[in-house]
Structures are given as C-alpha cells and as structure tokens.
Design a protein that fits this description.
Radius of gyration: 24 Å
Structural class: alpha+beta
Number of strands: 11
CATH topology of the largest domain: Arc Repressor Mutant, subunit A
Number of helices: 17
Strand order of the largest sheet: 2-4-5
Number of domains: 3
CATH class of the largest domain: Mainly Alpha
Shape: globular
Distance between the termini: 50 Å
Order of helices and strands: EHEHEHHEEEEHEHHEHHEEHHHHHHHH
C-alpha cells in the first residue's frame, strides 16, 4: 500500500455523513473537491476557487464542455438541498451560498453555506476523513455515499441499517427499488463492485469493501449488515499521471515543486493549486520566502499552514510586514478564544461522562425506570428511533444523560 499524507482529504462531521441529500456523481466530486480545500485551522468559509481546466478533470468531461456548461453546473449546485439530523429537528440547507464564474481567470469560486460551519470547520471529534482520490473514482452516486457511511464505522468493523433508513439516507425515492433484490443488484452490489475494482497493475483503488448480511422479519428482508473489510490499495495522487482525475502538467516542474512546498507546510493540494493559479509562481514563491523568514525567526506561533494561508490569501509578500504582524496578533487572540471554547467543550464532555458513570452504577430496575421516563418525554417519531438505537447512540446519548441527571 502506498501512503502519502499529501492526498486531498475531506473532513466532515458524522452528522453530515449521515445526512440526506441527492447529488449527481459530478456534483459530489465537485463538492468534495471544494471541501478538500478547507484548512483544518479555518474559522470561516472563504471563496474556494477551482480553475475550469481542473473542473473538467474532476467531472471527467471535455474542457470545451466545461467552459460551455460552467453556468449550468453552478445553477444545479445552487439548487441542491441537504437535510441534516439535528437534536431539535432536521436542518434543511443548500450546499453553497454563492458560485461565481470568473471570466478573466477561467475559474469558478465557491462559498459553502454558513450553516454548514459546524459540520466542516474546526472539527475535533465525531468526524470522518475520506480521501478525494478514492471518492472521485466512483461512478455511482450511491457508491460514494455507502463508502463514507462505512468509512465512518471502519474501526468498529461493521454497520447495520434498516433497509428503509438506508434508502432514505441515500436519497432513494420510496417507490424506487421496491423489491430488495433490485436494491441489492443496482445499489449494494454495484458499490461492492466499485470498491473491489483493481487497476491494470492489479492493485485495489479503494481501501475497503464489505460482506453483506441480510436480516429478515418474517419473510421480508428489513435490515442489512455490512461487515467492513480492509483492503491494501495503491493510490493515484493528483498531478502525477494520466489516470488521475486531476490535470497533468509535467512540463511545469517548477510549479510542481512549489506545490510540494505549500503542501509540506499544510496547504491542501487543490487550495495550493488555486493560490498558484491566482498569484503566479513568482509571487507565490515570494510569499513562501517571507513565511520561511518568519518561521526561522520563531515568529510563526500558529503552524500547520494557517498563517501561510493568510499570507497567500491576502497576497502579503513581506512588504506589508507591519500589517501582517497586526493580523498575526489578532489571530493569536482568536486562537486563545478557540482554546477557551475547546476547554468548555471538554468540561461539558467530562460532565456527561460523570453522569453516565453514575447511571451505570445504578441497579437495572432503577435504570429501566429512568429510561421509561425519558421515553415518555419523547415525540412519537423520535421514540421509535430511540428504541432502535438506544441510549448510547450519537443521536440520543447527550440528550438522555442531560435528562437522567435529575434522577441520579
């Protein structure tokens, strides 16, 4: 297996992974490509820019068609809605709040909807990472979603769904694939086939597959269980060969070297490419030189690429060092606020753990009494889900412990 930390990563909250939405294969590739440009230290969404030639490669369409269809692509994406399960009710939100086609630069700028911040920014727990190079090769919209749902449970080794719930997550209409054999053939088996596809050299192009078990209620199959199987795979990295879903420009060796430098300092690959496209190689190198000077002088407190991303975004080559220093101090203040927020979250997490420990120490009769009281407080729609998933599920654990504290 070839491992390389430079592979573009998509990091999403688990709630986002389990949300309901319908996107075409091309739209999913585009959304994930833009998501891979988010830096782990970003506190807000920025306009993430993709060149039309890169867009053509991501969508696997002819470059001329990409220019022609740019407006159509952005119009479709602006209309797409995602439904995220939140504790107080489902959130319906568009993926992006704006798309801008830049005529002179031959690029499109995207900005995610602000409501998605809790699900894409500053994630420290309950998140799933996926590699763009794996997601971008799937041809079925359902393969992409099933991969992420299984990736989320990879360490556990298995995942079980009610068939109807899985269809709902995948955005499959109730009347479609009404018979389980159709659902299995066109959705589940297709995903397994794509997960186990090999390249010409005989290497897997996906890092997991699954064995499917079915569970019946009477004569009807109502649940499916995925036994997750890890696979050693050979990864194709961006900008490296003709099989990549990204553009290949081997003649630009200096650009490739610059890309590697930016990625080394923590800039996501597609975002690094976007900066070079926007600034040009010379100015990008000037900014990188200025960053290295500050780094050597010990004046970069926040490493991991956050300060370098700021310099690139604001086009600061060193001539505006005073302004950059002022901004650095502001960022330090924000970092302090982030740390305080993190401490508060950790304290809340410990409090819930303490409540959970008290609950577990009670006898079974008393625990069942508390559970019954909690069930009586739930809406009938939520009650069914609670009885299926239990007190330790992601959806109910925090809510149940808050409720149980009064009786402990």
């Amino acid at each position: 297996m070839t491992k390389n930390d430079k592979s573009p990563l998509i990091v999403q909250s688990n709630k986002l992974v389990e949300s309901r939405y319908t996107l075409s294969v091309g739209e999913q590739r585009l959304v994930f490509a833009v998501a891979s440009m988010i830096h782990p230290d970003d506190v807000d969404f920025y306009p993430y820019e993709i060149k039309i030639r890169d867009l053509a490669s991501i969508l696997n369409i002819d470059l001329n068609n990409a220019y022609r269809d740019a407006d159509k692509i952005t119009d479709q994406l602006m209309q797409r809605v995602i439904v995220i399960p939140e504790d107080d009710g489902p959130l319906k939100v568009g993926w992006v709040s704006s798309c801008k086609y830049n005529n002179k630069k031959g690029s499109i700028s995207f900005r995610f909807d602000p409501s998605l911040k809790p699900y894409l920014l500053q994630l420290r727990r309950d998140f799933t990472q996926s590699k763009l190079t794996i997601l971008a090769q799937f041809q079925s919209i359902y393969s992409i979603r099933i991969y992420q749902l299984l990736k989320q449970y990879r360490k556990i080794g298995h995942r079980e769904f009610r068939v109807d719930d899985l269809k709902e997550i995948l955005g499959i209409d109730k009347g479609k694939y009404a018979q389980f054999k159709q659902f299995r053939a066109w959705v589940l088996n297709q995903a397994k086939k794509e997960f186990e596809k090999k390249d010409d050299a005989g290497f897997y192009q996906c890092d997991l597959s699954f064995i499917l078990e079915t569970i019946r209620e009477g004569r009807k199959i109502t649940r499916v269980k995925f036994i997750i199987v890890n696979q050693a795979y050979q990864e194709t990295l961006p900008f490296m060969d003709k099989k990549s879903v990204f553009p290949v420009r081997p003649e630009l060796s200096s650009e490739k070297e610059l890309l590697e430098k930016l990625e080394y300092f923590g800039i996501p690959p597609l975002r690094a490419q976007s900066y070079i496209n926007d600034l040009g190689e010379d100015k990008t190198q000037q900014i990188l030189d200025y960053y290295n000077v500050r780094l050597a002088a010990g004046k970069v407190d926040k490493k991991g690429g956050a300060f370098l991303a700021y310099l690139l975004r604001e086009k600061i080559t060193g001539k505006s060092a005073f302004e950059a220093e002022e901004e650095r101090q502001k960022k330090e203040k924000k970092t302090s606020e982030w740390n305080k927020k993190f401490e508060i979250e950790e304290a809340a997490k410990k409090r819930l753990s303490d409540i959970e420990l008290k609950f577990l120490q009670k006898d079974e009769i008393y625990k069942n009494e508390i559970i019954q009281k909690f069930e009586s407080s739930l809406h009938p729609v939520l009650l069914k889900s609670f009885r299926e998933n239990g007190v330790n599920s992601i959806q109910f654990r925090e809510q149940f412990l808050e409720f149980a504290e009064e009786y402990l």
